[in-house]
């Protein structure tokens, strides 16, 4: 059983990877109003981030430090990314933004091709990408790569992709952020480090080539 938040619990062993979670389950794990945000914050505490799942690059995301800021922040998020599901997560300060480069094929196989650190950002836009990750111990990076691959296989993912995490250096814990289901511009960092041709590997994986 896996708790998704907002008191939603799912038995992942009963989820069909080809269909994913139901729309009702996804809706229950998100917030539908400013009141929902307040209820969520009462459980997990401040500060939090209100995020639109279809946002990016600084759009559809707001930091909230107290109850008085919730209504305006929620309104801004839903107006910036109209129609997107919105969720709330606890904010982690002084963290690192780390990511894992994945490659998965039609046979259910998934491998990590390395890790990157994209923590140096300005206005939610990545400026410098480093690889491989050195800001976390090797065993933590290995756990992160394993978690990314297990996630991809659990949902039947088929493609190159990037699984992103927040890493807390103080506790050595990491939390899932999102998956970019495509090659990102920073994939060349992984190519340089590992001597890969990721676009070619992506085509081979999609064609189920050996």
From TrEMBL:
Keywords, alphabetical: ATP-binding, Biotin, Ligase, Nucleotide-binding
Coiled coil regions in record: none
Domain of life according to the entry: Eukaryota
ATP-grasp domain: residues covered: 15-207
Biological processes annotated in GO: fatty acid biosynthetic process
PROSITE patterns: ATP_GRASP, CPSASE_1, CPSASE_2
GO molecular function, one term: ATP binding
Cofactor (UniProt): biotin
Listed InterPro entries: ACCA, ATP-grasp, ATP_grasp_subdomain_1, CPAse_ATP-bd
Name of the featured protein: Acetyl-coA carboxylase ACC2
Protein species of origin: Toxoplasma gondii TgCATBr9
């Amino acid at each position: 059983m896996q708790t998704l938040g907002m008191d939603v619990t799912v038995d992942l062993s009963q989820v069909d990877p080809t269909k994913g979670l139901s729309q009702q389950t996804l809706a229950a794990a998100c917030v539908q109003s400013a009141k929902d945000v307040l209820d969520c914050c009462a459980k997990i505490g401040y500060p939090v981030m209100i995020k639109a799942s279809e946002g990016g690059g600084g759009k559809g995301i707001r930091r909230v430090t107290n109850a008085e800021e919730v209504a305006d922040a929620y309104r801004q998020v839903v107006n910036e990314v109209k129609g997107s599901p919105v969720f709330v997560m606890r904010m982690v300060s002084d963290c690192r933004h780390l990511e894992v480069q994945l490659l998965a094929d039609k046979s259910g196989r998934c491998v990590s091709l390395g890790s990157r650190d994209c923590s140096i950002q300005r206005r939610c836009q990545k400026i410098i990408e480093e690889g491989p990750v050195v800001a976390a111990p090797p065993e933590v990076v290995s756990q992160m790569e394993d978690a990314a691959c297990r996630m991809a296989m659990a949902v039947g993912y088929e493609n190159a992709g990037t699984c992103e995490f927040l890493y807390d250096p103080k506790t050595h814990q990491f939390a899932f952020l999102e998956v970019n289901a495509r090659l990102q511009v920073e994939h060349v960092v992984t190519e340089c480090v590992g001597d890969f041709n990721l676009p070619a590997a992506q085509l081979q994986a999609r064609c189920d080539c050996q």
